[in-house]
């Protein structure tokens, strides 16, 4: 049996890369945003809203970082459950804890999917071997994801609250993530936090797409 690559094999490898590209281009910036630096950056902004009930930003930031660790590790989740407010009261209700457990479960699926998709796409690009075919695949992947990113970005800028609600209703139980303004999660992660995070992810994804598109065009011009 011949080990020669057929046009169908190459087309399939190329399609895999194109279809996985949104997961990679959007997933990598998302993983970057789920770090303490992003919380520090948001809270350092003059425009970041103050807590309506008077909690100091330093303590809000401390609780926000606890929340970050909670959705990334079991140990962090245990610390999150034990968190207290400055007056000694329990920081988070059971509903808030359940939602963070849902987020942790989702990220426990999504981030490995990003890593696996990246590795599989790299293998497919290596399999193609031909520089021009790789260039075409990168260009198409970039254009596909860039169009998707612009579509999501346009919708988010136009009506972010609706975009936020649609995403959460799709990923989580519609009744599990809606909280009162007095709940600590909304006090440490106001809507501006998520709006800025969404813009960061989409802008970073767009830049990755443009870089990949440029690389694709350069490879398309390659001559042996």
From TrEMBL:
Chain ranges passing through the membrane: 12-34, 106-128, 140-160, 199-220
Record keywords: Membrane, Transmembrane, Transmembrane helix
Coiled-coil regions, chain positions: none
Pfam families noted in UniProt: Lit
InterPro entries: Lit
NCBIfam families: integ_TIGR01906 (TIGR01906)
Protein name, entry field: Integral membrane protein (TIGR01906 family)
